[in-house]
Amino acid sequence: MKKTLILLSAMLLATVSVMAQDDASNGSWTTTSTPALKASEFFFNNWSKSGNSQIDATATFFGNYKYTHPKYVWDNIADLAYGYAWQDLDDSPDVPFFETRRKSNDKIDLTSAISWNAYKGLGASFTANLKTQFGAGFEYEGSGKTQKETMVSNFLAPGYLTTALSFEYKKTDWSVSFSFLTGKTTFVINDSLIAEGYTYGVIQEDPNKFTHWYPTLGSYVKAMYLKKDLVNGLDLYARVELFYDYWKSTNMSWDNLVETKYRGYEYLENNLAALEGKSWLQRRAFETDLDFELKLDYRLSSHISANFAINLKYDTDFNGMGRWGHWQIYQMAGVQVFFNWKTPKE
Length: 346
Fold this sequence. Notes:
With 346 residues, the protein is mainly beta. Helix content is 14%, strand content 52%. The longest helix is centred in the N-terminal third of the chain and has 20 residues, at 2-21. The chain has one domain (2-343). The protein is globular and about 70 Å long. The strands form 2 sheets. A 12-stranded antiparallel beta barrel has the order 1-2-3-4-5-8-9-10-11-12-13-14. A two-stranded antiparallel ribbon has the order 6-7.
């Protein structure tokens, strides 16, 4: 399995090397860099309807760097975000305003894809994608002086590196790719998280030595839709990704919980009961990872836009911090100031 992952990575490096040696006059670059800053503020004092005062600031960056050649297209995307919210959760007289600071957004999503068009939008592509975060993430209990925080994530903890050799069907506004040869490596580069049981699917078979990565092979489906000016000034972006680990059912050992490699996962007992009597297809669906994202941006002016985003994830390797279990949900709405730097085709 590790040899297969190394081979996929070597194929990407070899392809990029060939491209670099190609005659640059045959292709052209189109680049777009969009940094943005979103800020909001709410203040309540002796307000009958109640509410918590809050200041929120989020910085985002979206960059698209595309090299178009008669034989192929090399597309690179950087999607970054980081934000904090200062909240007034404790109204005690000796506690200052906005005493609680909590992270409101944190995202690193880097993609590099090389695609070849074979016939009327049908072709092949090789994609490498890295997903992680900038800083530590916490689960909170209480507020103010009594607030307690437990770290549940950090940079490359988890981190996901996915490499896929795919068949692709692409149109102007949307594309769908299928891969039955996808390497996915999960990283948890933090011993304290592993010790607390936050392994994100990185199997710990030796209790005396932490394992920081878990490479696997599986199937991958990705669909994207990007429509500029869906109506005047409104842009829509949607993405859905599905990944199935070929070794997941064996590692989990649903039919014999004693043999499971996911030690310390108490919730497996509940899952085993829930899946009892289910069909083969229902069990495979339970083990499949889902990542869905939807963004709406409405341009109010050349530098101001209103935006809405929602990101839904389903992953049995994360049991969750609340009643949602394996589901992870992020939703955001606001107004932001942005700048757009474009390099047209030469």
